[in-house]
Structure formats: structure tokens, C-alpha cells
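Look over this record before class:
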Amino acid sequence: MSKRPIIAIVTAFVLWFVMFAPITATKFDFWITMPISAALLTILSFLFAKLLIIGNIHFSWKDIALGVVSAAVLWGVFWLGNYFSNLLFDFAQGQVASVYDIKNGENQLFISLALLLLIGPAEEIFWHGFVQNELSKKIPSPWVIVITALIYSAVHIPSLNFMLIMAALVCGLFWSALYYYNRNLLTVIVSHALWDVSVFILFPIS
């Protein structure tokens, strides 16, 4: 594996640290930092693997429908996860609420458009269109699904929010598997973008 995915992953760790670590998160506006970070990772992905990414985007109504359905399924998984987490962990509700707090006082339309048109697509282009594809060159299948998801979850560790880290792990496994078996980046882009808007704005679970 070349140095390019390592550089990209380290860059993601730095950006996510700035956005989520308690010592830095309060110093920056999340809804400015996150779109900028997403855009930077997208640019990095295309600089390193433009042809690979473009080659894995295929327009298909069937795959778009799969993206929509998978977003709904993942929302259901999170609804159940939130329900049982509140039964098992005293801290769960507070940690989930702290994630939702970042939208308080912000323009909901702006957040929705940012999630739908930039953040969701950018994360998929980076984590699966670039990182997962690069890791698959060295990691035997289907272990690449697990490794990609673990890295995606790990970048959220600076938040010190167990529920957020576990949520990232579940999402990482779900979308990594979806991309691995479907092989259409457009499917996971649709799934991620719609799930983001649904769980965070339209149908919050908490």
C-alpha cells in the first residue's frame, strides 16, 4: 500500500480531532469546520485516486433505490439501538443529546443541505471510494469491511463520546459492507446523505 492512504487517514484524524476533541471543539463553529473538512477530504481523494473514484460511480435507479431503502433500514437500527442503549447505560441519553446539541441555534435548512449535498457524499467518496479501495489492495476480503469501519470509528475517539464512537462503528460497518457487496459508490452516497438528514434533522431519534 502506498503512502497516499496513510497521509489521507492521518489528515482525517487531525480534522476530526479539531472538530470533536473537547479542547478544540468549542473554539470552532462545527457547521463551518465540518463542510470545510469534508471538502478537503474530497479534494484529497480526487487528487490521489480520481479515476478509481469516478470508475466506481454508476447511475442506476435500482442502486439509488437500494440507497434509499438502506438509509431507512439504518435509521431503524439506530432507533432500536437508542432504545436499548437507554435501558442499558445511564449515560447514553446524555451523550446522544450532546450530539444533537450541535444543531441548536443553527439554520436547519443550511444544515440539511450541507449534510445532503456535501458532508454525506464527501465522507463516502473519501472513506469508501478512496480509503476502502486502497485498503482492499492489501487486506484480504471481507476483512477490509471491518478495518475500514474501525478506522472510521477511531477518528471519532477524540470526542470522548462512547455513543458517537459506537454509532460511527455501526455506520462504518453498514456502509463498508454495502459498498463491498454493491460496488457502486452512488448507492452509499445516497444512503449516507439521506440517513444524515433523516436521523439528524427530519426524524431525530432523541
